[in-house]
Amino acid sequence: MAFPHRPDAPELPDFSMLKRLARDQLIYLLEQLPGKKDLFIEADLMSPLDRIANVSILKQHEVDKLYKVENKPALSSSEQLCFLVRPRIKNMRYIASLVNADKMAGRTRKYKVIFSPQKFYACEMVLEEEGVYGDVSCDEWAFSLLPLDVDLLSMELPEFFRDYFLEGDQRWINTLAQALHLLSTLYGPFPNCYGIGRCAKMSYELWKRLEEEEDGETKGRRPEIGQIFLLDRDVDFVTALCSQVVYEGLVDDTFRIKCGSVDFGPEVTSSDKSLKVLLNAEDKVFNEIRNEHFSNVFSFLSQKARNLQAQYDRRRGMDIKQMKNFVSQELKGLKQEHRLLSLHIGACESIMKKKTKQDFQELIKTEHALLEGFNIRESTSYIEEHIDRQVSPIESLRLMCLLSITENGLIPKDYRSLKTQYLQSYGPEHLLTFSNLRRAGLLTEQAPGDTLTAVESKVSKLVTDKAAGKITDAFSSLAKRSNFRAISKKLNLIPRVDGEYDLKVPRDMAYVFSGAYVPLSCRIIEQVLERRGWQGLDEVVRLLNCSELAFTDMTKDDKASSESLRLILVVFLGGCTFSEISALRFLGREKGYRFIFLTTAVTNSARLMEAMSEVKA
Amino acid sequence: MDCYTANWNPLGDSAFYRKYELYSMDWDLKEELRDCLVAAAPYGGPIALLRNPWRKEKPASARPVLEIYSASGVPLASLLWKSGPVVSLGWSAEEELLCVQEDGVVLVYGLHGDFRRHFSMGNEVLQNRVLDARIFHTEFGSGVAILTGAHRFTLSANVGDLKLRRMPEVPGLQSAPSCWTTVCQDRVAHILLAVGPDLYLLDHAACSAVTPPGLAPGVSSFLQMAVSFTYRHLALFTDTGYIWMGTASLKKESQKADEYLREIQELGQLPQAVQQCIEAAGHEHWPDMQKSLLRAASFGKCFLDRFPPDSFVRMCQDLRVLNAVRDYHIGIPLTYSQYKQLTIQVLLDRLVLRRLYPLAIQICEYLRLPEVQGVSRILAHWACYKVQQKDVSDEDVARAINQKLGDTPGVSYSDIAARAYGCGRTELAIKLLEYEPRSGEQVPLLLKMKRSKLALSKAIESGDTDLVFTVLLHLKNELNRGDFFMTLRNQPMALSLYRQFCKHQELETLKDLYNQDDNHQELGSFHIRASYAAEERIEGRVAALQTAADAFYKAKNEFAAKATEDQMRLLRLQRRLEDELGGRFLDLSLHDTVTTLILSGQNKRAEQLARDFRIPDKRLWWLKLTALADLEDWEELEKFSKSKKSPIGYLPFVEICMKQHNKYEAKKYASRVGPEQKVKALLLVGDVAQAADVAIEHRNEAEMSLVLSHCTGATDGATADKIQRARAQAQKK
């Protein structure tokens, strides 16, 4: 249990510096508006802010009252209003309406807008159009990297996924490049870089340009992190669409981990109160089970409980001195452990109640069948029944997407009938959802005979037609061919199992999906690191539709120590799942690497589907 | 040592002065200097001459010539004066020549005689004409002071930031003062003037009489006055032949005695002597003298243990620079103190201004200045000059510049291009921009040059979406809508960006964009969205949906079109249901609409709806089963289950009844479950024993293990044994 790291595993850099930087900058910005002020915070920024500066720090810097940014008139009576928001147009309109209401009432106050992580020109323009640009002062809080854990940095930008992969909006790429630039100024240059995907490539190029412009800052510094790997989420949708069965992933799927913490409801805490729990390496109990397959967790926890009891029991037969020692030194730790243990046992029970039913087993069985590509008809009927029974709109959608990607699109008959059923069950507005999913390549129709070359020739015809605008559409439909089956074969993603897969002593990364499937994203990373590049992976890259988009960049004069080379930063553009993190942590232990994760946000199948769903306004 | 001080003349008790000739000016003056307006710039700057044809005693003849020379008399520029009569000339701190005309207009020329700009000293000056003018220098820049024909003063303390100030009247002033000057005190410019035996100080508020302390009596008039460059010292020349010297702050009653002569404390203080030798070398003009003094310092240094070498080294460097610029060909005779005050950066600027690029670069390299402050900056200036050479072709200029500059750090090609554009050479500017490695830097100039489409491509290349957006707004204002949309069409990245903006801020534009593109699919989606967001009334929503359906047909998306039409039908129907039955139906899904009908006992209507919308049997069965179980209408459920053979089998009946905790009903259906799912059904109702029997009967291994896994109760022991026995038996066979 809780595999220890190899003794030669490199130390992780200290990322708490990022928090201090963010805090100092925020305080500086708050002090730019001297005197008492009320702070309006966008809901999405509340949890990240909480991890950086708590209320008492804000109060120290003369923040009087805190409000949530929501579409309601402000009740604040303060003379100074400060808004801490994401650069979104709807926020601008909210602020403008507030300022304009004040103007109508003949009231003058000071307004300051702090954009995080950066401001966009479009936002300022909206302020101008609404006639309040001169009344507000704008600032940027360049807080783009939140260390959620010792090895996990999150940009907390879930909208990155929809904005880029659905809307084709590239504005966050600059933010990402700035974040990478910050990392290289703080932790030295990255001598070896790999990446795959259009967004990865653009971000990488922009980042390199930033480094060139500020030449010399990182020059001559010894690299702390020897390798970096950038990966677009659309290179591997499959992994993100699977049900998670390692503990941390399962907790995320069940209770939703938000910004590194989870709200355990009364059914977990076995009291009448909910409890907010921080889930990270500091939680000793959690740290031992987070990467475990769920089937092992319960027995581990009960063993742990017995051990704990035994330690308590040692009290009997102690003399006074020993007892004094016990109380002063061990008891607190034991009590803390006891508290955590009972929480996680509660969480396990709650998960078991939900997940060990027949339904969940069937669901997992269907997922495995889809991954392996057998009994497609049966799986399709299962999905249909799932829809007919209105089990869950998000789950139904997820299964449809999984079927589509693993099968290179649905056959036309299924494509129509599943969609019809879905609309009947969950409402006609999802017609828009389907349009989104098609655009993102998540749910498509098999075009019979439409081979890769056929599409390519179509594209070249379009070029001669000079209908350049349509080329992108053609290209994206080209990219939609997932070729999952062929990739799976090439990369051996479905392990051959002789007998039972031992989930207690996993032999490969497939354990995160009960031994049925090695996450594609993690396999790609493993292969590239092993080969130190993309050599021999040409066919895979082509199947991934990334022929021009897989890159390697190795610095020639290699100042990197062998230790730093085993420290690898993996950047997920569009989000990564806890299952992927667990799988790579496992790989790290096997190979003596240590992975650091940078993600635009932690995601899971439900979040992906929600990002694509259209909800009635 | 005598010879060194031979030309030192005593001045008072404690100071000496000397005069020496810097250059023998070999300029070829056509006029007597006294017939000219002359202005020599401070700090070894240039000299301007303008033959004065407007003097009364000499009638105006041909147009005069304005000539500019270096301090060593090397001609820099010569031009025919075509404007009005000039009263006074002067140089600004930036080495710009200010020519004050009689009408109060000041014309500004560069060192090379290039006209820069002009400004007026105001209406009052225009009406009363300029009698006299002074150019003066303050810490803020260079100023102009005017004495008008009405004997009033007007001044501007900084010609770079023109603010005119009319000074108060001097009481009883009937004629021009005998002499006057500007004085700066406490950052404010004043005017000191002499009228007969009286001196007046004018500030912006008042005119006050002042008396120089200790002035010899009998003065009836002041002939000249002069202020030191720092405004700390003043000299007055009286008609009695005296020169009075004192501090310019005349309010003070006593003149402070000079104190610089101090007794040398100890003779033979070598470090001090060495230091003084070094400093003295700095103040010597002639290289031979400098050398002697430095040699002496160097010699003395040998006898000292710890004399820090840097002052010596620095002095040697400074002197090399000074001697280089003092050279006759360069003609900037700076003193050491002036040089230190000016700083090397400003000196380099002045060399650049004189187009002495090679010398400037040599100095940078010699002093090892960082490239960005030094060589790069000078090269960039050179390039900016180069683009102004109109006789050289665009290609040649661009190539020459690129050859010399290459990728020198700190050189901004976009700045050079901006200069080229400023000279009207747009094509050259575009060529130069090509060398600019940061595409973002190219954008502002391209926009200025109205090359907005190129700017758009460059902005996209830069990856900076804000820049793209800026260009888009430019384009939007510059082009008509059709062209603007067409441009967007060719730039997908910009298009997505703009679409995103429109989605939130300009919905109508978004629609137009799709229309322009004949993107009927997105147009359809747009109208669907509108039917949810924008429209309140049912008629409006249906109309929006109809538009959407039409668009989907055009997009050949029959599926979406049909689905949209179904939605229209459903909406109308839901509306009718709400009217007839009350309750809430609008915006429910079809499934939920039927369920709601069943739950409210409207079975017939439910059936009708299911038929109308062709709800598949399977769905309908699931739906009814769930709804009836929710109602706990077991009787109706049983009737329904017997209405025909269930398309979903009977296991769902068992499941749903168990979910409602009705084991009794569940068991009824368990008996009807087909053999394949029998075991599951029996297990669901908790009949482990019978499940075991069926599994054994089926000889199905999977089923047997499933049952075994359910054998958890205390009474299941026998059942488990039974299965184990059956298994063993099966294996024997």
From TrEMBL, chain A:
Carries keyword Metal-binding? no
InterPro entries documented for this protein: Sec-1-like_dom1, Sec-1-like_dom3a, Sec1-like, Sec1-like_dom2, Sec1-like_sf, VPS33_dom3b
The listed locations are: Cytoplasmic vesicle, Clathrin-coated vesicle; Early endosome; Late endosome membrane; Lysosome membrane
One Pfam short name: Sec1
Among the GO biological process terms of this entry, one is:
protein transport
Task: Enumerate the UniProt keywords alphabetically.
Answer: Acetylation, Cytoplasmic vesicle, Endosome, Lysosome, Membrane, Phosphoprotein, Protein transport, Transport
Mode of membrane association: Peripheral membrane protein
SUPFAM superfamilies assigned: Sec1/munc18-like (SM) proteins
Where do transmembrane segments lie in this chain?
A: none
Q: Which GO terms describe its cellular component?
A: clathrin-coated vesicle; early endosome; late endosome membrane; lysosomal membrane; recycling endosome
The text of the family note is: Belongs to the STXBP/unc-18/SEC1 family.
Name of the protein in question: Vacuolar protein sorting-associated protein 33B
Q: Which organism is it from?
A: Capra hircus (Goat)
Automatic annotation (TrEMBL), chain B:
Task: Look up and give the membrane topology term.
Answer: Peripheral membrane protein
Question: GO CC terms on record?
Answer: early endosome; HOPS complex; late endosome membrane; lysosomal membrane
Q: GO:BP terms for this protein?
A: endosomal transport; intracellular protein transport; vacuole fusion, non-autophagic
Please give the InterPro entries that the UniProt record associates with this protein.
Answer: VPS16, Vps16_C, Vps16_C_sf, Vps16_N
Could you give a GO molecular-function term held by this entry? actin binding
Alphabetical list of Gene3D superfamilies matching this protein: Vps16, C-terminal region
* One matching Pfam family: Vps16_C
Task: Name where it's found.
Answer: Late endosome membrane; Lysosome membrane
**Where's the Vps16 N-terminal domain?**
4-253
Please give the start and end residues of each transmembrane region.
none
The UniProt entry's sequence similarity note says: Belongs to the VPS16 family.
SUBUNIT field: Core component of at least two putative endosomal tethering complexes, the homotypic fusion and vacuole protein sorting (HOPS) complex and the class C core vacuole/endosome tethering (CORVET) complex. Their common core is composed of the class C Vps proteins VPS11, VPS16, VPS18 and VPS33A, which in HOPS further associates with VPS39 and VPS41 and in CORVET with VPS8 and TGFBRAP1. Interacts with RAB5C. Interacts with STX17, MON1B. Associates with adapter protein complex 3 (AP-3) and clathrin:AP-3 complexes.
What protein am I looking at?
Vacuolar protein sorting-associated protein 16 homolog
Gene name linked to the record? VPS16
